[in-house]
Specification:
The protein has two domains: 2-150, 2-Layer Sandwich (Ribosomal Protein S5, domain 2), CATH 3.30.230; 175-486, P-loop containing nucleotide triphosphate hydrolases (Rossmann fold, 3-Layer(aba) Sandwich). The chain is built from 22 helices and 17 strands. It has helices spanning 22-25, 27-37, 64-74, 80-84, 104-114, 123-129, 145-150, 182-194, 208-214, 224-236, 260-264, 274-277, 293-297, 300-305, 347-354, 359-362, 376-379, 387-405, 416-422, 427-440, 444-461, 468-478; strands spanning 2-8, 13-17, 46-52, 86-88, 91-92, 98-99, 118-122, 136-140, 198-201, 251-252, 265-266, 271-272, 282-285, 307-311, 316-320, 324-329, 367-370. The strands form six sheets. Strands 10-13-16-9-17 form a five-stranded parallel sheet. It has a three-stranded mixed sheet with strand order 1-3-2, covered by helices on one side. A hairpin with a 4-residue loop joins strand 14 and strand 15 (316-320). Helix 2 (27-37) packs across helix 3 (64-74). The longest helix is centred in the C-terminal third of the chain and has 19 residues, at 387-405. The radius of gyration is 27 Å and the shape is elongated.
């Protein structure tokens, strides 16, 4: 984005053009007040500020600082040469102080691509922008700091070492709270080790939501590259982080009334949805049967490719969405299930409830677990295994995958052709999978998904090759016991 400003003779006026929204148009009053209260001159002439390119809608208060600086340069209060080397972004307060705006990281990356010397942003945003190498980031506290920028008196911010303050290991919730569910804990460990999607099916109160909330505590900490990706997306969504960079993996849990556009992105102009906000983290869909059918079906492309393509009349873009899907559902609307003897749901209501998870989407979910109610002895017994112990095994399995597939890659992301070439499957294991093919009802995609899960189970066991026992457990995790709609 570029800000152009013209000061001409005529009746005093101040116009902002270039498809600005209300927040951008109101910058006229903020700029006027900030200049006057900072002891700068506001010209009583015809002022036109153009935000280029003119065909893209503009939003937010981040243009305030650039408009004010352009106006000062146009009236000779600031040298334009000093502005040509830096990109500026910030919201102006009426007293001339500069407030932070989201997106300092993305702005620094774009400025480096344009060949600029650096960027000038609010002091609170400077550390985040300084994480981009090869670019100067100058902190500004007030509008008068532009004069210090002109004289070269501002010192660029030095980024802290990674990670600043140490990477966060989880979300503060521990897996040991999940009692009397050893099969569910094992499935969570496998899903975390290979970044596999998971469906938890069972009646209310069995621990499905508790398990999903504790799943992030099993995942490895964010790498520097992943943290930059998460921070960039948060800035694009207008979110403010507590730290300069994201130190926690995202955990998004949208309500079941979410629309398809809010889930995968869209609108005019197009904006990221929940799947992109969950990039490098977890997307949890609770009460899956209550979600709209079109919203669930829109998840097929993100789950398959790790990206979502949004095409609109004004713009088309591709957004990253490499996340782990954890979905939870009840067997029927009342939650008890027809096998419990307590279900009073009509067959038609059960069919409508279960059909929400279509075959195409269900086929893309790697692990599907039937969760039963725990017994009293298990609930009053000792707690389960803690997250730290499980996390250590997950990290070891991820290291084996990185050595085999390349840095940052997991089994869930591997194309089928590469999986079969590098997976090291025993002939007996493939034969066992062929025997279970008809019994489980696997599709071609389901065949590859079972191989991926089996490869992850072998990685957790420290085995270089995938054997019968690994494929057998993967087939058990693919079995759908609850409803015919999932079969």
């Amino acid at each position: 984005m570029h800000v152009e400003l013209d000061v001409a003779g005529g009746l005093p006026s101040f116009a902002v053009v270039g498809l600005p929204d209300a927040g951008v148009r109101e910058s006229r009053q903020r700029v006027r007040g900030a200049l006057a209260n900072s002891r700068f001159e506001f010209p009583q002439q015809r002022i036109t500020a153009n935000l280029a390119p003119a065909d893209l809608p503009k939003s937010g208060p981040g243009f305030d600082l650039a408009i004010a600086a352009a106006l000062m340069a146009a009236t000779g209060q600031l040298r334009q040469l000093s502005l040509d080397r830096y990109a500026l972004a910030g919201e102006l307060a009426l007293d001339g102080s500069i407030r932070p705006v989201p997106g300092a990281l993305a702005m620094a990356e774009r400025a480096r691509r344009w060949g600029l010397q650096g960027i000038a942003v609010a002091r609170e945003d400077a550390v985040q922008g300084a994480m981009v190498e090869g670019i100067e980031v100058l902190p500004l506290s007030c509008l008068r700091d532009l004069l210090r920028l002109e004289r070269g008196e501002l010192t660029p911010v030095v980024p802290p070492p990674w990670p600043p303050g140490g990477a966060d290991e989880g979300q503060g919730l521990d897996l040991r709270d999940l009692r009397a569910q050893p099969a569910l804990q094992r499935a969570l460990e496998i899903a975390a080790a290979g970044a596999h999607s998971m469906l938890l099916a069972g009646p209310p109160g069995t621990g499905k939501t508790m398990a999903a909330q504790r799943f992030p505590s099993l995942l490895p900490p964010l790498s520097r590259e992943e943290s930059l990706e998460v921070t960039r997306i948060a800035g694009a969504c207008g979110e403010r982080l507590e730290q300069p960079l994201a130190l926690r993996r995202p955990f998004r849990a949208p309500h079941h009334t979410v629309s398809a556009v809010a889930l995968v992105g869209g609108g005019s102009p197009p904006r990221p949805g929940e799947v992109t906000r969950a990039h490098r983290g977890v997307l949890f869909l609770d009460e899956l049967g209550e979600f709209r059918r079109d919203a669930l079906e829109s998840l097929r492309q993100p789950l398959e490719f790790g990206t979502v393509a949004i095409a609109r009349a004004r713009a088309s873009l591709s957004l990253p969405c490499r996340f782990v899907l954890i979905a939870a559902t009840n067997p029927c609307p009342c939650g008890h299930g027809s096998d419990s003897g307590e279900c009073e749901c009509q067959p038609g209501a059960i069919a409508r409830y279960r059909v929400k998870l279509g075959g195409a989407l269900a086929d893309r979910i790697d692990i599907q677990v039937s969760v039963a109610r725990p017994d009293a002895d298990g609930l009053r017994g000792p707690p389960g295994e803690c997250s730290a112990d499980v996390r250590d095994r997950v990290l070891e399995a991820r290291e084996r995958q990185h050595r085999r597939l390349g840095p940052g890659r997991c089994n869930a992301e591997v194309p089928a052709s590469e999986l079969r070439a590098s997976g090291r499957f025993d002939e007996s294991a493939v034969g066992l999978l062929a025997e279970g093919h008809e019994r489980v009802g696997l599709s071609g995609r389901g065949w590859d998904r079972v191989l991926r899960v089996a490869r992850t189970i072998a990685d957790l066991a420290g085995s270089e090759r995938v054997g019968d026992v690994h494929v057998s457990e993967a087939l058990m995790l693919r079995r759908r016991e609850h409803e015919p709609a999932l079969a």
